[in-house]
Amino acid sequence: MKTTKILMLAMISCTLFSCTQRLVDFTIISTKNIDLTKASTFQRGKTRVQGTDVAHMIIYVPIGTPNMKQAIDKALQSTSGAIALVDGVVFYKSWWAILYGQNIYIVEGTPLIDPSLASNSTTIPDYSVIKLDKKGNVKQSSVISKDEYLALKSKIEKTKN
């Protein structure tokens, strides 16, 4: 009974393999063209981000190859305005079982953000009416529908003619 358990454990451990390699630690990495004349305006992100690219294996036959560039791009796309990653690491991980496995690039780092490329977090409505006083200060602001806008536009055009 004891030898059967040991034999089963040995068979399971021989069919399930995993390996992770730390390929490189980097100070800065990017797949984008960076305008270094604006480097003084760049900001570090507050949290680390991660990007991965996966290729699958079926019966030990690779179905594609993982791409490090894709992993870097996915990490950059996770933060608005990110142009590079700083103080990070690249891992290569592979695992396989009896019939299926994966090869994976994992890129982690802190995003370097170009504020001029970062999207504005406030949403601007498609149509709105803003009323100003004689000094140019906002008196009233309201969001209107497209139909209300077209009706107001038509009314203003009629008064001009």
List the keywords.
two-stranded antiparallel ribbon; 3 helices; 24% helix; alpha+beta; 8 strands; 161 residues; 2 domains; 42% strand
Describe the protein.
It is a single chain. By secondary structure, the chain is α+β, with helices and mostly antiparallel strands. The chain folds into two domains: 15-113, no CATH class; 128-160, no CATH class. The protein is built from three helices and eight strands; from the N terminus they run H-E-E-E-E-H-E-E-E-E-H. The protein has helices at 2-15, 68-77, 146-160; strands spanning 17-29, 43-44, 49-58, 61-63, 82-96, 100-113, 128-132, 138-143. The strands form two sheets. Strands 1, 2, 3, 4, 5 and 6 form a six-stranded antiparallel sheet that branches. The chain is elongated, with a radius of gyration of 28 Å. The termini are far apart. The mean pLDDT is 85.
Count of individual beta strands:
8
Tell me the β content.
35-45%
Order of helices and strands: HEEEEHEEEEH
Largest sheet: 6 strands, antiparallel
The number of domains: 2
**Helix and strand composition category:** alpha+beta
Which regions have little confidence, pLDDT < 50, spanning 5+ residues?
none
Globally, the shape reads elongated
**Share of residues in helices:** 10-25%
Could you tell me the mean pLDDT?
85
Note the total helix count: 3
CA radius of gyration: 28 Å
Cα distance, first to last residue?
Answer: 100 Å
